[in-house]
């Protein structure tokens, strides 16, 4: 009965992790994978993403240039604040006028305008690019599902087909719409900020960057654990959709054989698995984001303490200390954005793994390179010595 498909679709998970076994959809029901298999799946996903983005290379280069200009304007503002404090205020106190300060304030306003304009252009271009990529992915997936054999669809079930075509596509759309630009911006901001901290004051910059190894360790841990968790989330939501679709499409048989209580038990079980997978994801975020904030606040406190000491002893100016504190805020704020982006990124990565697996499946009956035209029929059919089956050892015609 269709209600049991959600439980019977999973393959044996005791088989060894050999790369040859992981073509197509073979990895769909595995959460913890070996390093070699994980690498293979990531390469397969990158190939799919690269094939989708390749026609838009010119737009990608334009977006890269926009991001560079936008981040340069953002990074210039704290430095201008430092110049305003160190070079704009002293002339005013000495009675030499405020022309220098007004010039610096004008430059700050110009940087803000440049940042806003380039951000708007970036959002328009990236949004259009994302929708074009999703359109091509939906088309490619639909065409491929139609080419796959009936045996594949008997094994894969319509529920999983719907899950791949809807929830997995939605996960990728969420990443493209809300997260991808944030990741690029955050990465460039962090690199640029780290360089400027060392340029302003090497000793204080080293104190500020001393927490960087902790950030790397925490981020690597979160990446490893969340990859497993979000792979599990994509699979459990697929099982929920499978059971729901298979039950509703076979509702007459379900009611005729009084399968409602059993189907409800199965649905409660798979739905609870989906809830547990999501709770695990939320717990990981609940550890990662406060951890980033804790490291950032401790670093700012250490920089403020050591920077005040160096300022009082004449090793650096108040403007440099002010710029340091602003740069540190810019340094750790992207980490918060990255942690939020990881939610959509890991979910989209798991979805991309499954979509690339489906698209790698070869049809059992490929289209002929040189099809032979059929002769005119004479109104009669004769079958002699013919057998046919969709699934091996299960003939439907003899």
How would you portray this structure in words?
The chain has one domain (36-360): ABC transporter transmembrane region fold (Up-down Bundle), CATH 1.20.1560.10. With 398 residues, it is mainly α. The two termini are 25 Å apart. It is 77% helix and 2% strand. Helix 3 (57-93) runs antiparallel to helix 4 and helix 4 packs antiparallel against helix 6 (158-200). A two-stranded antiparallel sheet has the order 1-2.
Summarize the structure.
This protein is an all-alpha fold.
By CATH's scheme, which homologous superfamily applies?
Answer: ABC transporter type 1, transmembrane domain
Q: Kindly report the oligomeric state of this protein.
A: single chain
Order of adjacent strands in the largest pleated sheet: 1-2
Any low-confidence stretches, pLDDT <50, length ≥5? 1-23
Please identify the top-level CATH class: Mainly Alpha
Class from secondary-structure proportions? mainly alpha
CATH architecture classification name: Up-down Bundle
The CATH topology label is ABC transporter transmembrane region fold
Largest sheet: 2 strands, antiparallel
- Written as H for each helix and E for each strand, in order along the chain, the element string is HHHHHHHHHHHEE
Strand-residue fraction? under 5%
| Strands, total number | 2
Helicity range: over 70%
In DSSP terms, counting alpha (H) and pi (I) runs of 4 or more, how many helices? 11
């Amino acid at each position: 009965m269709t209600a049991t498909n959600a439980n019977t679709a999973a393959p044996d998970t005791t088989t060894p992790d050999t790369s040859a076994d992981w073509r197509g959809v073979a990895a769909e029901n595995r959460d913890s994978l070996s390093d070699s298999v994980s690498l293979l799946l990531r390469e397969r996903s990158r190939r799919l993403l690269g094939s989708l983005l390749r026609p838009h290379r010119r737009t990608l280069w334009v977006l890269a240039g926009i991001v560079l200009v936008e981040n340069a304007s953002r990074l210039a503002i704290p430095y201008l604040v430092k110049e305003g404090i160190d070079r704009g205020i002293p002339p005013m106190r000495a009675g030499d006028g405020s022309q220098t300060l007004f010039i610096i304030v004008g430059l700050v306003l110009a940087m803000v305008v440049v940042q806003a304009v380039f951000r708007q252009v970036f959002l328009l271009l990236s949004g259009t690019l994302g929708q074009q990529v999703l359109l091509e992915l939906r088309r490619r997936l639909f065409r491929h599902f139609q080419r796959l054999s009936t045996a594949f669809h008997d094994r894969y079930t319509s529920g999983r087909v719907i899950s791949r075509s809807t929830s997995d596509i939605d996960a990728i759309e969420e990443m493209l719409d809300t997260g991808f630009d944030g990741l690029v911006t955050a990465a460039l901001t962090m690199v640029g900020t780290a360089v400027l901290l060392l340029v302003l004051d090497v000793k204080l910059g080293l104190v500020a960057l001393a927490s960087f190894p902790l950030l790397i360790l925490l981020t690597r841990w979160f990446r490893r654990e969340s990859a497993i968790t979000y792979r599990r989330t994509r699979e459990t939501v697929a099982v929920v959709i499978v059971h729901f679709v298979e039950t509703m499409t076979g509702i007459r048989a379900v009611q005729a054989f009084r399968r409602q209580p059993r189907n409800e038990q199965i649905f409660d079980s798979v739905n609870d698995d989906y809830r547990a997978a999501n709770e695990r994801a939320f717990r990981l975020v609940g550890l990662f984001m406060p951890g980033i904030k804790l490291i950032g606040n401790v670093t700012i406190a250490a920089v403020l303490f050591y920077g005040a000491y160096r300022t009082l002893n004449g090793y650096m100016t108040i403007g440099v200390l002010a710029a340091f504190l602003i740069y540190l805020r810019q340094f750790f704020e992207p980490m918060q954005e990255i942690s939020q982006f990881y939610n959509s990124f890991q979910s989209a990565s798991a979805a991309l793994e499954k979509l690339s697996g489906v698209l790698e499946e070869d049809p059992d009956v490929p289209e002929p390179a040189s099809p032979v035209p059929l002769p005119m029929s004479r109104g009669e059919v004769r079958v002699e010595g013919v057998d046919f089956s969709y699934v091996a050892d299960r003939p439907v015609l003899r």
